[in-house]
Design goal:
about 400 residues; alpha/beta; Rossmann fold; six-stranded parallel beta sheet; 15 helices
């Protein structure tokens, strides 16, 4: 089987959910003997990618790989002008004529069985794929994008921000639902996302495929873990992450300051705004920014905090945390789609009081944290092993090719 994967960013290094999912999909397909090509947009703000690690280069050497630089920045003037247009500029900015031409030439020259679109930002290229290829077009939904914007709007108190987010959500929804009905098949990570699409009368078959991890990469070493310690890891250029960690820091800042929460709290990830430095308190709260090795960082800390208030899809960082046997405290929205059992392999907290009580319990009871982490690892081994997930994906491809 020949598969062409389209992405809106370079999936190297694997420092976030999107690149982890893409790269593990590629590895899984290659290991089963399928041919894979990857065409990636390279937005200027990600110009420091790709990384040059041996792991990434080894994967690149096994595939046909092309990247195309684009500029997705929007000026204040363009943003203001867009308010008077009925367009989803948030998505449209990823359309580039040069990349479209490169894709057309590839599809005219080579026959693919599957063209997989990784998320809404590469959906604008579906017309070219339809025109120049007989391949089955598969859409992987990393989030229901308009739903993320709707949930962000609900959280906002500022009337103008609420109005703007609702406007963007409405425009993205119109574009998203129209585009999804043009694909031959769709995959989602969670039953919640499947139900959302079915409620909107999406016609193509929708298959649920969980996040897959290469389990041999996740090797916890408790001798290097600081206990007690709390941590957050995530990219803050994604609005739900930024909103969630701001809520958490604002809510519990004084609890760390006055010593009621007797643990250090570490914040790490990409694109952390400078103003977050104001939260830093020596010996209590550490704003670390981007870390060289995400798994090494996760291993070094004990209790993972996932305070997502608006989101969708499945949070890969939670699945990775479970694979590393971490004790995790998450909102129910953050853990959406994971087949968890509260109190057995994760702790769910949706209010200040629930978060506080969970943190205090975990800080005081190391044995409880360790057992929760071990149970989490067992869940991931059973459901999220990339070998199992890739077998499911290939079976889905084969069914799509028959229809």
């Amino acid at each position: 089987m020949k598969v062409l994967i389209l992405t809106h960013r370079i999936p190297f290094p694997q420092n976030g959910g999107y690149p982890i999912v893409v790269c593990n999909t590629i590895r899984g397909l290659l290991d089963l003997g399928h041919e894979v090509a990857l065409f990636a947009l390279n937005a200027k703000q990600h110009a420091h990618y790709p990384d040059e690690s041996e792991e990434s280069q080894a994967l690149i050497d096994r595939i046909k790989y092309k990247l195309y630089p684009i500029n997705i920045r929007i000026s204040m003037y363009e943003a203001a002008l867009n308010l008077f247009k009925n367009q989803a500029q948030y998505v449209d900015r990823f359309y580039n004529h040069g990349f479209d031409k490169m894709l057309a030439e590839e599809l005219k020259a080579h026959q693919y069985d599957i063209v997989q679109f990784e998320g809404l930002f590469v959906a604008p290229y579906i017309s070219t794929a339809c025109k120049y290829s007989k391949a089955k077009l598969v859409y992987r939904s990393h989030n229901i994008e308009h739903q993320v914007w709707q949930r962000l709007a609900v959280q906002k108190g500022d009337p103008f921000k609420k109005w703007y987010l609702k406007l963007m959500a409405s425009r993205i929804k119109k574009f998203e639902l129209h585009q999804l009905n043009r694909f031959h098949a769709i995959t989602v990570f969670t039953v919640q996302d499947q139900n959302t699409l079915l409620e909107h009368d999406i016609k193509p078959p929708i298959n649920i495929l969980p996040v897959g991890l290469a389990m041999d990469k996740y090797n916890p070493d408790y001798s290097k873990t600081e206990f007690p310690s709390l941590f957050f890891l995530g990219s803050l250029d994604w609005m739900p992450n930024r909103e969630g960690i701001q809520w958490f820091l604002n809510t519990f800042y004084h609890d760390f300051m006055n010593g009621e929460l007797t643990s250090r709290f570490y914040v790490a990830g990409n694109d952390i705004p400078e103003q977050f430095d104001d939260y830093e308190v020596m010996g209590k709260i550490y704003i670390q920014g981007e870390v060289d090795d995400a798994l090494e960082f996760v291993n070094s800390k004990a209790i993972m905090i996932v305070p997502l208030l608006s989101s969708g899809g499945m949070r890969v960082k939670i699945v990775e945390g479970m694979a590393m046997e971490k004790c995790i405290i998450s909102t129910s929205l953050g853990a959406e789609g994971i087949n968890y059992t509260h109190g057995e392999n994760i702790l769910i907290a949706n209010t200040r009081e629930e978060f506080y009580n969970c943190m205090v319990k975990c800080i005081r009871d190391e044995d409880f944290c360790l057992q929760l982490g071990r149970n989490a690892r067992k869940l991931v081994e059973r459901v999220h092993d990339v070998k199992v997930v890739t077998d499911q994906l290939v079976a889905f491809y084969q069914q799509v090719l028959k229809d």
